[in-house]
Write a structure and sequence with these properties.
The chain has 13 helices and no strands. Helices cover about 60% and strands about 0% of the residues. It is mainly alpha-helical. The radius of gyration is 19 Å and the shape is globular. α2 packs parallel to α4, α3 packs parallel to α5 and α5 packs across α8.
């Protein structure tokens, strides 16, 4: 198999903004895990969650948070399905039910930012500290409408809880070690999917605006959040290696199978982001935005400020 060589091909791993394109990618990977997988439930869920983000889901407004947007969820989902494939290829074979549970958790992990009709004030960022529980409530209601047995939302609940990175993963109660391992995949995808985004550093400006609206954290400026991100990554990497069991390493099996090279392109992209971040914060506060040029995010954040 020919190995990946060009920066354009590597960049194509990321930038998963088109829901139709992402669905094509994830369904192809899932078929590689389980050729006879029944997509009926997760395809319906996928369509409904995309409707929710657009404001087309009954009883809800469009999701307006700038950082936790459709792109964020799609990047996490894409990373998560690739990680599921890597875990499966490593010899830890996944069942169809396990695929469904993890797919659902990754897709639903941030729907708690959605505002119900009558909650239109703000962007939804005011739910920063409660969005996980709100998302779990949405998930449970959704699956009850589809008449699924209670064991399904019960299992997904622990997985979504694992994405609340301000809470210790080790304090979440799971039915058994297998359930804990599946939740590690979901939590790892949430971290690596967003931090490997090629526009991650720019998007941190949007994250600052969400934190400011939520009155969350003690950041006094966008620049201060950027300065503290390296420390955040050191803590997060420790969590990935310890509490989350280093499962991110299984991404190498996916890329070996799909691209012929045993690289972890997600980890490599994160390291590049962190390296460039050091150059940014070395600038004075008046000049740092000139180094954040992707997607017009710096300009948009200035206008909102």
């Amino acid at each position: 198999m020919i190995s990946i060589q060009t920066s354009a091909e590597i960049a194509n791993i990321f930038g998963n903004n088109d829901p139709d394109m992402v669905w094509g990618k994830v369904s192809d990977i899932i078929r590689r895990i389980s050729p006879d997988y029944d997509f009926t439930l997760i395809q319906t869920l996928y369509i409904d969650v995309m409707r929710l983000f657009r404001g087309e889901y009954p009883g809800y407004c469009a999701i307006k948070t700038l950082y936790h947007d459709t792109s964020h969820t799609l990047e996490v989902l894409m990373c998560g399905v690739r990680l599921m494939h890597g875990v499966h290829l490593s010899g830890d074979h996944l069942t169809d039910d396990e695929i469904t549970l993890m797919f659902s958790a990754m897709l639903l992990h941030d729907v708690g930012y959605a505002q119900r009709e009558g909650e239109e004030s703000g962007t939804g960022a005011q739910y920063t500290q409660t969005h996980v529980q709100r998302g779990i409530e949405f998930m449970r209601h959704y699956f009850s409408q589809h008449n699924l047995p209670s064991k399904v939302p019960d299992a997904i609940t622990g997985m979504i809880m694992g994405t609340e990175h301000t809470k210790p993963f080790t304090r979440i109660a799971f039915e058994d070690e297998r359930a804990r391992m599946l939740a590690r995949i979901v939590a790892t995808a949430d971290i690596t999917g967003q931090m490997a985004d090629r526009a991650y550093l720019e998007k941190l400006l949007f994250l600052y605006l969400e934190f400011k609206e939520a009155r969350f954290g003690s950041y006094q400026s966008m620049y201060e959040l950027l300065r503290q991100t390296s420390h955040f990554y050191r803590l997060t990497r420790k969590k990935m290696d310890e509490a989350l069991g280093g499962i991110y390493q299984k991404l190498e099996f996916h890329f070996k199978d799909r691209l012929g090279v045993r690289n972890n392109y997600y980890l490599e992209s994160i390291e590049k982001n962190m390296s460039y971040l050091q150059k940014i914060v070395a600038q004075n506060e008046a000049a740092y935005l000139t180094m954040l040029k992707r997607n017009g995010i710096a300009e948009k954040s200035r206008l909102i400020m």
